[in-house]
Each structure stands twice: as structure tokens, then as C-alpha cells.
Write a structure and sequence with these properties.
Layout lengths: L8 E6 L2 E5 L4 E3 L4 E2 L3 E5 L5 E8 L6 E4 L2 E2 L2 H18 L4 E8 L9 H16 L6 H11 L3 H4 L4 E4 L8 H7 L2 E3 L7 E7 L9 H11 L3 H21 L2 H20 L10 H15 L4 E5 L5 E6 L3 H11 L4 E5 L6 E2 L3
Parallel strand pairs: 7-9
Antiparallel strand pairs: 1-6, 1-16, 2-5, 3-4, 5-10, 6-9, 7-8, 10-11, 12-14, 12-15, 13-14
The site of ligand 2P0 has 15 residues, from helix 6.
């Protein structure tokens, strides 16, 4: 029988986000506390839709991702997340989780961001937790760091929280919030060069980078200045500065990985061909700036008015990849019923 205050079933949708100031490196693996603040744009493409149904009679959680039963690490992470929600809600019910993800999983296109943002919103509602967006962001963070940002639409900053203090203080402070922008009509043109799963997970790669890369500390230190400059440029509607800072922050992050031992290299010849093309687009007078995540794909920030032209140029450079244009998208939300 349903317990009081619990919905028993809920469905939520969330979109991926692309960081312009990157999250790379944790200072607490268990709480998923990052080393640096990060800033992203939530997209209007590749939604994840997740339904959570409580099952009073079930001994285990049952998790289905795109129609196939989740196993191994993917299952373990969802169950650990549900355990956290159950602990908060004071309920022991297992759940049936069905998630439909339209983004290529594991391809450095932030499938864990939309996935855990949707799961946080759906699971909180199904288990009867009444959480505001800040609390949902904090909760989503525990599933995957970047998911904290997908709780919000448009541009969002995820605060690392204080480096000192108790774990509880850090947990409370580390959530995303919307970032005010001025007159900006941005697009992210995504060149999908390889939609297959990556060889090194971002979780493993960032741990190795923090532990072994002699470049890591200097990138992390410079990231704070990048963020301040980015926020000012967003407010001013200055897409050139937004793009310049995003591109250097991303290239710096990849430099930290290249210097890790052993090196982590997500960039491929196809990635470099697209980066060359972005330089040419800029030389032709169109403001366009690249960012890359834990995969070979390139996302190019430009004005929406230039997105068609940028996409056409990237099509030529992307060989047998595909190109799509994304705009700012909505935050995670419950679907009605
Ligand atoms: C980001 N990335 O800011 C960075 C840039 C990839 C490169 O967030 O371990 O899947 O689950 O917290 O969020 C990918 O890392 O890592 C990521 P976990 P997550 O978007």
C-alpha cells in the first residue's frame, strides 16, 4: 500500500549540458565534490526521459537503459543513487527504472549529465522527497558531477564549494545555479565524429589526471580566472570573449590529460581536422570557438545567426561524422501525470 506523501511513480526529462569552463578532477570521490567551479550551457537536443516506479514486493532494483537491462558499473551507479534517495526518504522500497536516452552513450556527449539529472528529479518525486531546484542539483551531483548543471536550463555554474570545512558544509555548498546573461543568442554546433563508447571513462581519466599530471594544478589555478572572465563576458553578451575563454579552458584541460601518466588522449585526427576548420572559420571573420570533452567530438560555440554557415563548414571537415545545431535548452522537469 502507498505510504503517505509518496507519489510511487514519476517520470522526468532532462537535457545534456556542455561545459564552457570544465569540471575536471574531484576533491571528494564519494560526495562528488569537484576541484574547480564549472560553467555550462544546457542543450535543447538529446533529452533523456526516465520513469521511476516503486515496488513494495521487489528485492532488487530493476534498471532498463534504452530497453536493455543495465548491468555492471552502470547498474551499480544507479542503485547507489537510489540508495541515497531511499536513505533521505526513509523508505526501503526497491524501484523499477526505465530510461530512454537519445544521446550516444559514453561518447563524451554528457549522457551521464542528462541521465542523472532526470533520475534525480524522477526518483525524488517517486520517493516523496520535496526538493527545490538547488537541492535537486545537489542530489544529481551525487550521481554524476555534470548532472548538477543539467537540473538548470540555459547557462549554469556549478560551485565547487569551500575547500576547507566539514563534509556537510561542502555538500551543501556544491550545487549549480543559473548564470545571468546579457544579449546573447548562442548556438553550439556539435560535430559527432565517433559515437562509440570511449576507452577510458571520464571518471577514471580525471582521477588519473589529478593523481599524476604535473600540469593539473596550474590548469586548476587558472580556471578560476577563466570563470570570472567568462561570467563577465556572458553578462556583456560578448560572444568572442565567451568563446576564447571556453576554447582555452578546454584545450588546457586536454593538456592536463596528455601530461598524465599514462597519457589520456581523447582527441583524434578527426578532432584536429575540425579544430583546424574552426580556425579557418574565424579567419574568415565568423566568431566560432571549439570545446571538447572526454571524447573526440567537437562542439563549436557561435552566434545562432552564424550556425548554419558554421555547420556547413564543419560538415566538410567532419569526414564521415554528423553535425547538428543545438541551442540553449530547458532544465530538468517532471512530466505531468
Ligand atoms: C564537464 N566532463 O565539465 C567535464 C569536461 C567531461 C569533460 O563532466 O565522475 O560524467 O560522473 O562526476 O560528470 C564528465 O564527467 O563525471 C564531465 P563524474 P562526469 O562537462
Amino acid at each position: 500500500a502507498p505510504e503517505q506523501g509518496a507519489t510511487e511513480e514519476a517520470t522526468a526529462v532532462a537535457h545534456p549540458n556542455i561545459a564552457l569552463i570544465k569540471y575536471w578532477g574531484k576533491r571528494d570521490e564519494d560526495l562528488v565534490l569537484p576541484r574547480v567551479d564549472s560553467l555550462s550551457m544546457t542543450l535543447d537536443v538529446f533529452p533523456t526521459t526516465t520513469r521511476v516506479r516503486l515496488r513494495a514486493d521487489a528485492a532488487h532494483d530493476q534498471v532498463t537503459l534504452n530497453g536493455a537491462p543495465a548491468r555492471g558499473e552502470a547498474l551499480r551507479r544507479v542503485v547507489a543513487f537510489l540508495d541515497l534517495v531511499r536513505e533521505r526518504a526513509g523508505r526501503a522500497h526497491r524501484a523499477v527504472v526505465d530510461s530512454e536516452n537519445t544521446v550516444p552513450t559514453g561518447a563524451g556527449l554528457a549522457s551521464s549529465a542528462s541521465g542523472f539529472a532526470a533520475l534525480a528529479v524522477a526518483a525524488a518525486a517517486a520517493y516523496g522527497l520535496d526538493l527545490d531546484a538547488t537541492a535537486l542539483s545537489r542530489l544529481a551531483r551525487r550521481g554524476s558531477g555534470s548532472a548538477s548543471r543539467s537540473v538548470f536550463g540555459g547557462f549554469a555554474v556549478w560551485h565547487a564549494g569551500p575547500a576547507r570545512g566539514t563534509a556537510q558544509e561542502a555538500d551543501l555548498a556544491s550545487h549549480a545555479e543559473p548564470v545571468p546573461t546579457g544579449d546573447l543568442d548562442p548556438a553550439l554546433v556539435v560535430a559527432v565524429l565517433d559515437a562509440g563508447p570511449k576507452e577510458v571513462s571520464s571518471r577514471t581519466a580525471m582521477r588519473r589526471t589529478v593523481d599524476t599530471s604535473p600540469l593539473y594544478e596550474s590548469w586548476a589555478a587558472s580556471s578560476g580566472a577563466d570563470l570570472a572572465e567568462m561570467r563577465a563576458a556572458l553578462l556583456a553578451g560578448d560572444i568572442e570573449t565567451v568563446g576564447e575563454v571556453a576554447e582555452r579552458n578546454a584545450l588546457g584541460m586536454h593538456a592536463t590529460m596528455l601530461a598524465a601518466r599514462p597519457a589520456v588522449r581523447y582527441m583524434t585526427p578527426a578532432t584536429l581536422a575540425v579544430l583546424d576548420r574552426v580556425l579557418r572559420i574565424r579567419r574568415d571573420g565568423v566568431p566560432a570557438y571549439a570545446t571538447m570533452d572526454a571524447g573526440p567530438n567537437v562542439k563549436v560555440l557561435c552566434r545562432r545567426a552564424d550556425a548554419g554557415q558554421v555547420a556547413a563548414a564543419l560538415w566538410e571537415a567532419a569526414a564521415d561524422g554528423t553535425v547538428l545545431v543545438a541551442g540553449p535548452g530547458p532544465g530538468a522537469r517532471l512530466l505531468g501525470g
